[in-house]
Amino acid sequence: MLAQHEPYPAFVIDRCWNLLRANRGALKLTEFLTGAASPTTSSQPINLAVALLAPEGLRPFIVNWQEVALHFIRGVEADAHADGMPETAGLLDRLLALPDVPALSDLMAPEEGQSPVLPIHFQRDGTSLRLFTTIATLGTPRDVTLEEIRIEFFFPMDEPTAQTFRSWTK
Predict the structure, then answer these.
(1) Triad 128, 9, 101: Cα angle to 5°
(2) Is the pLDDT of residue 25 over 80?
(3) Average pLDDT value over all residues in the chain
(4) What order do you get walking across the sheet with 127-137 strand by strand?
């Protein structure tokens, strides 16, 4: 699935947004935004939710950061209530502790609904990338391990974005 989604980004994550795998499109996007990856010495996995919302992560490159933050916080809050796992509640607490992240009281009520598609507008050095993201889960109710795995797919929202990703494969 990751290879078939090239040249567009795709990430495999666990239920707490820890990165498990990524395709080349995801690596190219990350390198474009943050520079070449440095060798990591941390034993901690990369957490994509934290990377997206932290000031030292991707936040400076997200034009619609407030919208993205609201979407992610609401999603993690729903996960924390649904699964009752301490790890998910801990992730929610970690995200809410980041500077300028909206408090739960500032979020829309769950019954107001949330679009299943999240538009993200990245911008760096005059290049604008408009993407939307969807998340797929695999398995049946008995596949506990698979239920914890999610694949986040990014799709271009316009032709200039699509062209940028295609140019990175040359």
Answers:
(1) 65
(2) yes
(3) 86
(4) 19-22, 10-14, 149-156, 127-137, 118-124
